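G., the chain you wanted modeled:
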Amino acid sequence: MALAASTMPFAGIATLLSKTAPSSALPPSSVPQLRRPGSFRVRCQAENPQEPATPVSPPPEASPPPPPKVSTKFSDVLAFSGPAPERINGRLAMVGFVAALGVELAGGDGLAAQLASGDGLTWFLATASALSVASLVPLFKGVTAESRSGGLMTSDAELWNGRFAMLGLFALAFTEFVKGGPLV
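Predicted structure as C-alpha cells:
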C-alpha cells in the first residue's frame, strides 16, 4: 500500500506532462536513443554437435596428506618451544595440585609444612619420574599429543588444565603465605 501510494504522484505527473506537452515540442536530439549504434552480438562457445562428447572422469579421490614428520631428537623434544616441557610441567602440576589439596584436607598441613617435612619426597620423586618418562616415550617415538586427542580430551584442554594447575599451585602457596597457615 505504501509503495503504491509513493509511486502515484510520479505516475500522475507523467500523465499530465504527456497530455499538456505536444510530442513534437521536444527536438529529436534531446530524446535518448534506445538502440546502440552498430550491431551487438552474443556468441556462446558450446561443444560442436558433430563431435561426440568425451566423458569426463571424476577426479581421483584425494587421500589425506601424511602427517608432518616430527623430530624425535632429544634437543628438539626438550627444547624451550618443544612439545615436552610445558606438557610435562602441566601434568606434574595437575598431580601436585590435587595431591597438595588432598594432603591438606586429610592432615591439615599447609603446602609449606608438607614441603618442609620431607615425608612425601620419595613419592614426589617417584611420581615425577614416572610421569616424565611416560610423557617422553611417545614423543621420542614420533607420536604427538595432537594426533592422539579427540572428543572431550583434546591436547589443548590438557595444556589449559596444566596451566591452570600451575597457577593453582602458585595461588595456594601465596594464599597460605599471606594467611600464615594452611588454606583449610
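DSSP finds seven helices and no strands in the chain.

Shout if anything looks off.
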